[in-house]
Amino acid sequence: MARSYKKIRGRNAATETFPGSLATMVVRARPGKPSQGLLQAGPLVFACALGKGGITSRKREGDGATPLAAMRILSGYFRNDHFAAARRTRLPMAAIEAGLGWCDAPQDRNYNRPVRLPCKASHETMRRADHLYDACLVLDWNIAPRKRGRGSAIFFHLARPGYTPTEGCVAISRRDMARLLPHLSRRTILKVVR
């Protein structure tokens, strides 16, 4: 897909504006490409990457699938040195420091929570060399209550070139994230459907 947006009913994502806050964004798999999707935000549709396992209603830790669910955006993290545009949002955002991680070990008491590095339990490093988490929003998947093995670190973050698969997150281009952030709040729901 050459562009990360497309025209919808005479509208163009390059010029369209949103009227305030977005209540819901809907994500669907692209026909014939279960690890790529289309994210509808208001009247606009953006390309997105999904988990390498496609969309599932039976999410498990390590399955690489994106959960079939309506998930509220809770907060976010950003790299101040790489993505200052993340400051322009209604969401609570924290700068990603070198010692920030996210625990993905189901047996650990910090499962599916941020942790300080170094950490003995299995975890993700939030300050990544590939820049995927330069803007990273935390979705409320398996947060409260947390259930062991139901999946961790389901984020809304930046996509790799070509929208290659994630480990279960939803990912969009840097340009599209900068465009959406000012219209997102803790009331925004990211709804993954089939």
TrEMBL record:
Keyword terms, alphabetized: Cell shape, Cell wall biogenesis/degradation, Peptidoglycan synthesis
Pfam family name, one: YkuD
Claim: Cell wall biogenesis/degradation is one of the keywords in the record: yes
Superkingdom of the source species: Bacteria
L,D-TPase catalytic domain mapped to chain residues: 25-193
Functional pathway: Cell wall biogenesis; peptidoglycan biosynthesis
Cross-referenced InterPro entries: LD_TPept_cat_dom (IPR005490)
Name of protein: L,D-peptidoglycan transpeptidase YkuD (ErfK/YbiS/YcfS/YnhG family)
Source organism phylogeny: Bacteria, Pseudomonadati, Pseudomonadota, Alphaproteobacteria, Hyphomicrobiales
